[in-house]
Amino acid sequence: TQLLEQSPQFLSIQEGENLTVYCNSSSVFSSLQWYRQEPGEGPVLLVTVVTGGEVKKLKRLTFQFGDARKDSSLHITAAQPGDTGLYLCAGENQAGTALIFGKGTTLSVSS
Amino acid sequence: DAGVIQSPRHEVTEMGQEVTLRCKPISGHDYLFWYRQTMMRGLELLIYFNNNVPIDDSGMPEDRFSAKMPNASFSTLKIQPSEPRDSAVYFCASSPDRGDNQPQHFGDGTRLSIL
């Protein structure tokens, strides 16, 4: 069974701090997607990483796909209250029939 | 452009009642997905459609759950009879295609509470 484990489950930090959240699996994924979900809303796609070792930047957010394509990380520099939300990673199952989601990291950034 | 539209946003009803959740996907998207989100289990795929045809319903928990897509612009998820353990946020999502690089566009969900 393919699983995506996300850590930490909860993270509470002050504005201006840096943080990293992780998405790990024992299975290989052809790509991984990262979504952010704000309270009362649906998840919104942030980025898709496709190539092993790939690094993508989205303003203060840096996404990395592991060389073996089994894990990914999201690093946020100088976090702001607007970064608060649930961060989800997702990848397609081996049959290509479903998107598997991790349970997410809930991030709270206070000013 | 209009995103995925779900209704109602909130539903509170007593156990045993029939519940119908509605979804309008983004125009031109061939795939429609229904998910359920809970604290314990996270986001789980219930069923998805391609060109209005149900493709994989292996995530539907029980026969009490059913989903239809009568046309390209409308889908329903029905629970009959409802039970307290069905309480969750239900999301509908659509995408233009399947594949690793295809993002899914989510609605804002229906928060369902079964008393």
Structure description:
The complex is a heterodimer of chains A (111) and B (115). Chain A is mainly β. Helices cover 0% and strands 52% of the residues of chain A. In chain A, strands 2, 4, 5, 9, 10 and 11 form a 6-stranded mixed beta sheet that branches. Chain A has a 5-stranded antiparallel beta sheet with strand order 1-3-8-7-6, with no helix packed on it. In chain A, β6 and β7 form a beta hairpin. The model of chain A has no long low-confidence stretch (mean pLDDT 94). Chain B has 115 residues and is mainly β. Chain B has strands at 5-7, 10-13, 19-24, 31-38, 42-50, 53-56, 65-71, 74-79, 88-95, 105-106, 110-114. In chain B, a hairpin with a 2-residue loop joins β7 (65-71) and β8 (74-79). The relative contact order of chain B is 0.33. The mean pLDDT of chain B is 94. Classes of the chains: A mainly beta (111), B mainly beta (115).
Can you summarize this structure?
The complex is a heterodimer of chains A (111) and B (115). With 111 residues, chain A is an all-beta fold.
List strands and helices in order, with pairings.
The complex is a heterodimer of chains A (111) and B (115).
Chain A: E1 5-7, E2 10-14, E3 19-24, E4 32-37, E5 44-49, E6 55-58, E7 61-65, E8 71-76, E9 85-92, E10 99-101, E11 105-110
Parallel strand pairs in A: 2-11
Antiparallel strand pairs in A: 1-3, 3-8, 4-5, 4-9, 6-7, 7-8, 9-10, 9-11
Chain B: E1 5-7, E2 10-13, E3 19-24, E4 31-38, E5 42-50, E6 53-56, E7 65-71, E8 74-79, E9 88-95, E10 105-106, E11 110-114
